[in-house]
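Record now logged underneath.
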Amino acid sequence: MHIHPLIEDSATLANLCTRLSQSPFITVDTEFMRENTFWPELCLIQVANTEEAAAIDPLAPGIDLKPLLDLMTENDEVLKVFHAGGQDLEIVYNLTGKTPFPLFDTQVAAMALGQGEQIGYSNLVDSYLGIQVDKGARFTDWSRRPLDDRQITYAIADVTHLAEIFPKMLERLRRTGRGDWLDQEMERLGDPENYRQDPEAAWQRVRINSRKAEVLGRLKAIARWRETEARGKNLPRGRIAKDETIADIASNPPRKQSDLSKVRGLSASWAGNDIGGRLMAAIADATPLPPSEMPSRDDRGPSLGKEGGLVADLLKLLLKIRARDINVAARLLARSDDLEALAAGQRTDLSILQGWRFEQFGRDALDLVEGRLGFTVRDGKLAMTRTDVED
């Protein structure tokens, strides 16, 4: 495989993208920094196919990334392969408003092949190629320039190894007949809504004990204010105010701006400065959360109750047994909220009652909650048994 020098100019990048656009797949990885900013700072992009690989410097003066971004979001003839690509997809979405398509995530595929719930990249490389990945540059400050040869070599190895692994993984999926299982997961991973950060929904990420509409309405307004401040200053949310601080303010709102000096977690200067004034304005404009947005009082699902909770526990046991029997990660088969919804009586809009999940697990899960399936022990091993149910 040909490894290019670091690409720092638009013409070389455009030529690379023209060649890559003829490939059936490319592997993609990014290096970024986000500790001190609201938006992840893209510092390096690595791409490869089976013939060539390169690292691109997005911080190079005047470089035009459009050919690369178009390749990832507009060219549906080339499959984009990532490993645990959620943060990479977020970066592409932030730059374009779109996500790479079509895409393939090797960490998700590994779940279908029984290689664990969240296999790390190093373990994946060791499993398929017998190579021990050099981890020496993991904690590099990728925003600093110049990058040395060791850093670039480390970064490019992520996509060159992946270009070798992907065909091997694809062949295993074909042999097991599980390739179709991944379509729904890849669609879910690539849904742009996963990466859209709506200030109106920011409050839902903050933990708060209260279920009062007035308190939650204030929390929504304060979280929206914090989101706006953080974006405008390009600072992490916690640098503006921590979650526990805004939850406390929502529950115990200050009556006047001077009271902000008494709020734990805020600077005393907020009692008289502009940012404190904007916070007070957000609190003053808050309205009670409407009933349609109120969270469920039962965190375990709709009307789950004590007995439903026990049924959900049995379903989780069934999931472990079934995942063991077919050698697939349990998380790929079913998620806890689906199990709890089934235990609570829901029979529609559940992924485990559709497609391959129904065939592999959902049918047994339904039979368990409806009394047609039970547990037994055979030769010291937990298994399932059919039961006779009279109408």
Summary: Strands lie at 2-3, 25-33, 41-48, 52-56, 79-82, 103-105, 373-378, 381-386. The two ends are 66 Å apart (CA to CA). The mean pLDDT is 92. DSSP finds 15 helices and eight strands in the chain.
